């Protein structure tokens, strides 16, 4: 009897297992936006004509009807191009008779770019665009020129350049659920996507299960689990992150972002170290909104997300009553709007006129989402735009500042923190290292803005200054914001500063992938045997994440260049040289792949190959001080002193803050021009005040020319800055004797 029961129980268990295996598992798959229309017709009809839905559209009769005829051919790179429009087909032809079929149109808010399919699978932007805002046909790349206000000159690229290849640059944010399918062996694409434009499922996730459970549910009795991402159940951070993938100047470290994910697990962010920003964080170039929004008090203090003002399809909710967008937080300002705006005779009547001033750059209209008021004092200090003079184009910033101070007597005090952080960024950009103490005070303050802190960290000079390293170590593990932690980790030196390694090892276990990747990059050259046993698993995992991030874009020069830099640190010079050469093949108009490639060949003792690449780098249209510097060093090592001096002088001329150029040139001319040697070494110390070698060398030459008092003075000044070394200590002792 007992035995029989046991058999029954086993059989029953087997039946249970079999029944369990037979349960149907429904996989969440993409159904397409059309699957939403049956139940959500109202929202579908609002989405369908939106800029999201039309981010990319195939040629159609509707598109043809929206385009006026091109009145005359437009010149591009020596040929004249004409656009031909019919309901069935669009194409562009040049004056040599070659035709390019228009397969897709991209954009439509500011202008339409037209794409043609090349034989290698590239979808290439064609040389003529249609400017929607000005109702005008234009040369594509000339219309994209950026006009900087500091004298920088932008130059047009060829319309065939990879920067205008849809598969390489644009596809992630203009189509839904895309795969670039780039083949590095053949340098071809087989790009696919679920549907053109930004679909419903781009923001709400795969809809197949949602459709299934809703159709199976009884009428008027919807399922408890709708099997769809509901934005009203997402946190503010999740909502902002879902928009940020396309609305930031970011860099992907994975290709797996999905709605509800943490942005920093998938992207890095360009901040105010970049020329497309003014030093105060105002937009100069195209930065895609979120960098400004994350500065806004609405986001930092008001806990608002993008969808407070916009629908998930990008439409503005307050188009008819824009001032309603500022409620309920600013009810008082809305009620006394005329008094607050100081424009009794009209002009500025909307909050956004002053707080979200619109400007155009490179053909793109963009509004300032930082919501900050006009600050003419910052315009005077760092050159940024302000709403006053964007509207009153005949007036000066000084005129605007006079009025603002009259209206707001505490204006200068209220904006003092804005002025302080902007001037610190400006100082770092300019190489004004006298401001380093103030910069370090700012970045170590936990109340400082994370975007400004990150910008300053990225602009810090490489140095052995113990205070700087101590602050960065604290930030890499203790800073609240993951962007700050990642920037601090990237600024540490696991190769040459063993004191940084414990912090970087700790950062390998950070909950955010971006921090782990940046820490792994700084530890990549450390032999695994030197990694403590308890950290080896996290080290291996983070290294895998790092290489995944680096290999994400094998069609982009930067992926090969960054990988080569790591390989150089690992002393894998042959592989690094191959990667640098591949980077140069993909982008042959910039110097860094050539310069670093030359270093790889120099380490392989292939000096002719190194020289060839450096000469090529010095002949690029954009002058490269680094190319001249490294070519000068190569010639100096070969005893070609005249050629070395020529290139070191050129490097120092192009980059007066290049301490190494000044230092090496000083030594090179020391046998014929000692006054210049002194001047150059003082310049090197000014540019890099924490490098003891520069001080030692200047003190040495002072001693050699029988000027011990000057040698003593320069060493004592170094000691006051906290700079010391055995050589300096020994030399100082000799002077004392």
Automatic annotation (TrEMBL):
Pfam families, A to Z: Cytochrome_C554, TPR_1
The entry's keywords: Signal, TPR repeat
UniProt repeat feature TPR, residue ranges: 625-658
Keyword Signal: yes
Superkingdom of this protein's organism: Bacteria
Gene3D superfamilies on file: Flavocytochrome C3, Chain A (1.10.1130.10), Leucine-rich Repeat Variant (1.25.10.10), Tetratricopeptide repeat domain (1.25.40.10)
Keyword Signal applies: yes
All residue ranges annotated as the Cytochrome c-552/4 domain in the record: 36-61, 162-205
Protein name per Swiss-Prot or TrEMBL: Ammonia-forming cytochrome c nitrite reductase subunit c552
């Amino acid at each position: 009897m007992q035995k029989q029961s046991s058999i029954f129980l086993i059989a029953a268990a087997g039946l249970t297992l079999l029944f369990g295996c037979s349960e149907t598992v429904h996989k969440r798959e993409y159904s397409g936006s059309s699957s939403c229309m049956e139940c959500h017709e109202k929202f579908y009809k609002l989405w369908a004509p939106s800029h999201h839905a039309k981010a990319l559209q195939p040629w159609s009769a509707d598109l043809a009807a929206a385009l006026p005829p091109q009145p005359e051919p437009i010149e591009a790179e020596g040929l004249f191009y004409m656009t031909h429009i019919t309901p069935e087909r669009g194409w562009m032809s040049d004056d040599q008779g070659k035709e390019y079929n228009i397969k897709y149109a991209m954009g439509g808010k500011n202008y339409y770019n037209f794409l043609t399919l090349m034989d290698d699978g590239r979808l290439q932007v064609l040389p003529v665009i249609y400017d929607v805002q000005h109702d005008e046909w234009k040369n594509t790349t000339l219309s994209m020129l950026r006009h900087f206000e500091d004298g920088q000159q932008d130059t047009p690229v060829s319309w065939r350049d990879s920067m205008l290849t849809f598969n390489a640059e644009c596809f992630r944010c203009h189509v839904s659920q895309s795969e670039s399918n780039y083949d590095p062996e053949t340098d071809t694409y087989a790009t696919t996507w679920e549907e053109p434009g930004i679909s419903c499922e781009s923001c709400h996730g795969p809809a197949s299960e949602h459709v299934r459970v809703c159709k199976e549910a009884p009428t008027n009795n919807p399922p408890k689990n709708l099997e769809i991402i509901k934005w009203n159940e997402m946190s503010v951070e999740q909502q902002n992150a879902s928009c940020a993938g396309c609305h930031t100047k970011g860099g992907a470290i994975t290709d797996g972002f999905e709605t509800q994910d943490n942005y920093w697990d998938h992207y890095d962010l360009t901040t105010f170290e970049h020329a497309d920003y003014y030093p105060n964080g105002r937009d100069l170039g195209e930065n895609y909104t979120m960098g400004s929004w994350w500065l806004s008090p609405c986001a930092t203090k008001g806990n608002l997300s993008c969808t407070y003002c916009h629908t998930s399809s990008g439409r503005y909710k307050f188009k008819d009553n824009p001032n309603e967008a500022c409620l309920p937080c600013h009810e008082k300002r809305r009620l006394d709007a005329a008094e607050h705006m100081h424009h009794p005779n009209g002009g500025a009547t909307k909050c956004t006129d002053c707080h979200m001033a619109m400007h155009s750059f490179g053909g793109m209209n963009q509004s300032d989402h930082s919501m900050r008021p006009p600050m003419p004092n910052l315009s005077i200090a760092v050159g940024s735009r302000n709403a006053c003079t964007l509207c009153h184009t005949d007036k000066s910033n000084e005129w605007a500042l006079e009025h603002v101070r009259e209206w707001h007597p505490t204006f200068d005090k209220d904006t003092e923190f804005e002025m302080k952080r902007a001037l610190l960024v400006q100082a770092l950009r300019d190489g004004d290292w006298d401001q380093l103490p103030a910069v370090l005070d700012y970045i170590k303050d936990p109340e400082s803005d994370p975007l400004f802190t990150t910008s300053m960290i990225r602009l810090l000079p490489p140095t052995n200054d113990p205070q700087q390293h101590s602050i960065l170590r604290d930030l890499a593990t203790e800073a609240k914001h993951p962007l700050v932690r990642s920037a601090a980790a990237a600024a540490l030196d696991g190769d040459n500063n063993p004191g940084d390694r414990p912090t970087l090892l700790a950062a390998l276990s950070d909950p955010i992938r971006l921090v782990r990747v940046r820490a792994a990059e700084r530890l990549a050259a450390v032999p695994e045997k030197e990694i403590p046993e308890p950290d080896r698993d996290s080290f291996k995992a983070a290294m895998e994440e790092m290489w995944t991030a680096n290999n994400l874009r094998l069609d982009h020069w930067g992926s090969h260049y960054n990988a080569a830099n790591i390989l150089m640190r690992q002393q894998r010079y042959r592989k690094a040289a191959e990667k640098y050469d591949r980077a140069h093949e993909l982008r042959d108009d910039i110097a860094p792949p050539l310069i670093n490639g030359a270093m790889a060949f120099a380490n392989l003792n292939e000096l002719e190959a190194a020289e060839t690449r450096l000469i090529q780098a010095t002949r690029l249209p954009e002058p490269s001080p680094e190319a001249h510097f490294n070519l000068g060093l190569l010639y100096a090592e070969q005893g070609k002193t005249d050629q070395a001096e020529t290139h070191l002088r050129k490097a120092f001329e192009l980059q007066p803050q290049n301490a190494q150029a000044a230092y090496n040139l000083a030594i090179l001319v020391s046998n014929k021009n000692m006054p210049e040697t002194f001047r150059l070494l003082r310049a090197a110390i000014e540019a890099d005040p924490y490098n003891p070698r520069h001080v030692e060398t200047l003190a040495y030459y002072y001693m050699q020319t029988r000027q011990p008092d000057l040698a003593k003075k320069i060493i004592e000044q170094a000691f006051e800055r906290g700079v010391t070394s055995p050589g300096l200590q020994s030399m100082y002792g000799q002077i004392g004797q």
